[in-house]
């Protein structure tokens, strides 16, 4: 008899985006002529930058000819891309990361999910709340938690994000082995200062713990002084793994490419306290279970690092940031407290009431879809997330409608 992995049965069945889709469908069936604007999505709306398209076309021509054909590539990524990443994302910014510490993949979601199989079954995991659900659900699937009781899993440590700490939890007094951090944050749009990240690194070093740092939204940082990488902090190479993605940086949500940095100094420990390097572990994991991201995609990703690619991706992100600013200014004017939206595509709005009630109000009265904060964890109750990934026309129309309903 085939036995099921019963950990899957612990996972909350009502997935946030399924419930949103259900409510939107019910509304459109009753109001077929309503023009719904979706400010809930985390997917990009602008096409790929021209430099990427050009590079990918050229790569297609490469694989079309016997002399320049590429089959299986290195599982860790092609040297040309790893070198380009090391130079433009790190070394040019004065950050010490080498090409052979970079592992190219088909996106940050897979890497965030897969990385936890490197660690012992009984490691204590801490996650922020509100949280990007992947960090939680992958650990539930792996059997590192108990049951879900009242919206939280037994055995997981939840780090409270709230208005008082600006949704940047501190490690003060924390006893954990692995902690997930994400800045700029999804869903809250909060960013961490260098001093705040340094506090986490100092904590991790003292506890021999590990930080899993998700920097999927790094490219949205515009405020000088906000760290783009955890490795800007002293000592982070000893205690942090960083995830990056081309999804929001360059519109690769459908094309799929990302990478993970595992520094040579990074150690974890056996039950009897022996230190083990993690970079060979991740190499082994990837070479065994992953067959690389496509050559065509990696040539496209390489073009993101060219001077044209950098200028073009910056212009696209500036466009989304302007969308965010238009919405943030309007909501502040209406008297709402808003976090994010300056170094992030997400606005986190305190709705002064229940998340789902506010979601329903905006859907029914303004025909605008948002994301209820409660769907990202208990700490998200009382907030909604609004995304800047949209056309200018939709953003302006939505802002006008919201002002009418809430004004
Ligand atoms: N990490 C965070 C915080 C995200 O919000 C997302 C996507 O929404 C991802 C990772 C996934 O990125 P990718 O498309 O590279 O899998």
Structure description:
This protein is α/β, with parallel strands linked by helices and 407 residues long. The chain has two domains: 6-47 and 310-406, Aspartate Aminotransferase, domain 1 (Alpha-Beta Complex), CATH 3.90.1150; 52-307, Aspartate Aminotransferase, domain 2, CATH 3.40.640.10. Helices cover 38% and strands 15% of the residues. The chain contains 13 helices and 17 strands. The strands form five sheets. Strands 2-10-9-8-7-3-6 form a seven-stranded mixed sheet, sandwiched between helices. The protein is globular. The termini are far apart. The model has no long low-confidence stretch (mean pLDDT 96). Pyridoxal-5'-phosphate binds next to α5.
Keyphrases for this structure?
407 residues, Aspartate Aminotransferase, domain 1, Aspartate Aminotransferase, domain 2, 13 helices, 38% helix, 15% strand, binds pyridoxal-5'-phosphate
Outline the secondary-structure elements.
Layout: H1 7-10, H2 16-30, E1 37-38, H3 50-64, H4 79-90, E2 102-105, H5 108-114, E3 125-129, H6 133-141, E4 148-149, E5 152-153, E6 157-160, E7 178-182, H7 194-207, E8 210-214, E9 240-245, H8 247-250, E10 258-261, E11 267-269, E12 275-277, H9 278-289, H10 295-304, H11 307-333, E13 338-340, E14 346-350, H12 355-366, E15 368-369, E16 371-372, E17 383-387, H13 392-406
Parallel strand pairs: 1-15, 3-6, 3-7, 7-8, 8-9
Antiparallel strand pairs: 2-10, 4-5, 9-10, 11-12, 13-14, 14-17, 16-17
Helix pairs in contact: 3-10, 4-10, 5-6, 11-13
Bound molecules: pyridoxal-5'-phosphate.
Pyridoxal-5'-phosphate is lined by residues 42, 107-109, 112, 132, 182, 186, 214, 216, 245, 247, 253, 258.
